[in-house]
Write a structure and sequence with these properties.
Blueprint: E1 22-23, E2 36-37, E3 45-46, E4 52-54, E5 61-65, E6 68-73, E7 76-80, E8 88-90, H1 97-100, H2 125-129, H3 131-136, H4 170-180, H5 188-232
Antiparallel strand pairs: 1-2, 3-4, 4-5, 5-6, 6-7, 7-8
């Protein structure tokens, strides 16, 4: 999976009410602030017949599937393990089929090119992304509804975190999720997302171990210098 970092350079104004998404702008690393702020844990409702949830009160194309949150925004899909990001851009060739299959009617802010498409059918992604995408993702819109996987459990522990308590960085989010939510994604894109976070965690551990070694070495060197100075006196 190829994640890309982008700088959001324009502001999309959305109608607001206390339950809806709000507007923000900026870039967070290693993820992205995409211009949508979810001020509190969403009121997720199951899409009938699909292993997917959405929030009918959020004025955004916002979903929960396979243990992750998904947003379709400015013609791109983004993913996060926490309800308000930060977000990672997902390559169009790697978006899970059950996300692609969500019917048009559950997009709370459908783009203009959805107009005229059947509300009870998924968007025509082949029309949008072109014949090469359609060729590589052939069969995405054909499935046996009786064989759909069970939905992932909702990470309701995140209700405790909003406002100033919300852990805005992945280095803060990771240990909380590890402790309170044991579900592991089925989809390749989700598994790779968490492999990435584990890799970051290992890198942080290694950096901290190296820092501790350097600090210990510096203390030893200082002690030896102090001992030599004491002997000279």
């Amino acid at each position: 999976m190829r994640y890309l970092l982008i700088l959001v350079s324009s502001l999309l104004f959305l109608p607001l009410n206390p339950a809806q998404a709000q507007v923000s702008i900026g870039v967070n690393t290693p993820g992205i602030s995409i211009g949508i702020t979810i001020p509190a844990y969403p009121q997720l409702v199951r899409v009938p017949g699909y292993p997917v949830y959405y929030d009918p009160n959020i004025d955004a194309n916002y979903f929960f599937y396979d243990g992750l949150y998904w947003i379709f925004y400015t013609n791109n899909w983004y993913v996060s393990s926490w309800y308000n990001g930060p977000w990672q851009l997902v390559n169009a060739y790697e978006v899970p089929v059950y996300i692609l299959r969500i019917p048009v009617r559950y997009y709370r802010r459908p783009p203009a090119y959805f107009r005229g498409w059947r509300a009870d059918a998924p968007p025509r992604w082949g029309v949008h992304w072109g014949p090469e995408w359609e060729r590589q993702r052939r069969g995405w819109d054909r499935w046996n509804r009786s064989s759909a996987p069970a939905p992932a459990p909702l990470p309701r522990y995140q209700k405790e975190y909003s406002g100033k308590r919300y852990p805005s960085g992945r280095e803060q989010q990771r240990p909380i999720r590890t402790e309170k939510y044991r579900y592991q994604p089925r989809e390749p894109v989700g598994r790779e997302y968490y492999r990435g976070t584990r890799k970051e965690q290992r890198q942080m551990r290694n950096t901290q171990q190296m820092r501790n070694k350097n600090q210990s070495r510096n203390k030893d060197q200082k002690k030896r210098r102090d001992d030599r100075d004491q002997q000279r006196r």
